[in-house]
């Protein structure tokens, strides 16, 4: 490779919970949700590309950039939105794992959720 060319790699985070939700939605609704799944995956790639560019250009991650460019009130609002998104993601993961434990061991969903709470 010549010194004038660089090679860039894009790493995409696609968690198993997302794939499980995609598969279940596909089993319920067939191909009618395929467009939504396709667009959401493209949006994830676009957002991750923007975060990569932000990091390369400014040397900061998204949280550091928000802290340096926005007022304190806006940062607290963004923090609250991020926490809500984290909670929503974790709830989906816990329920999905509890359903998997139900399928594997025949436990009720509540027993699976309580077991996960105890482990964590």
Please specify the SSE layout and strand pairing.
Elements: H1 16-29, H2 34-58, H3 62-69, H4 72-105, H5 109-119
Helix pairs in contact: 4-5
- Overall, the morphology is flat
State Rg.
19 Å
Helix % is over 70%
**Which H/E pattern describes the elements?**
HHHHH
Task: Bin the strand percentage.
Answer: under 5%
Instruction: Quickly give the structural class.
Output: mainly alpha
What is the number of E strands? 0
Number of domains: 2
The biggest beta sheet is recorded as:
none
Number of helices: 5
Unreliable sequence segments: 1-6
Cα end-to-end separation: 48 Å
Mean pLDDT: 80
Model description:
With 120 residues, this protein is mainly alpha-helical. The protein folds into 2 domains: 1-69, no CATH class; 70-120, no CATH class. Helices cover 77% and strands 0% of the residues. It is built from 5 helices and no strands. It has helices spanning 16-29, 34-58, 62-69, 72-105, 109-119. The chain starts with 15 loop residues before the first helix and ends with a helix. Residues 1-6 have low confidence and may be disordered.
């Amino acid at each position: 490779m010549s010194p004038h060319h660089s090679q860039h790699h894009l790493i995409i985070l696609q968690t198993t919970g997302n794939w499980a939700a995609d598969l279940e939605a596909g089993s319920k609704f067939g191909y009618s949700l395929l467009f939504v799944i396709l667009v959401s995956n493209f949006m994830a790639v676009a957002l991750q590309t923007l975060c990569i560019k932000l990091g390369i250009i400014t040397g900061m991650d998204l949280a550091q950039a928000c802290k340096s460019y926005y007022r304190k009130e806006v940062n607290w609002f963004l923090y609250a939105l991020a926490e809500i998104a984290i909670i929503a993601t974790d709830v989906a993961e816990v329920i999905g794992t509890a359903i998997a434990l139900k399928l594997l061991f025949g436990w009720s969903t509540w027993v699976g959720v309580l077991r996960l709470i105890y482990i964590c």
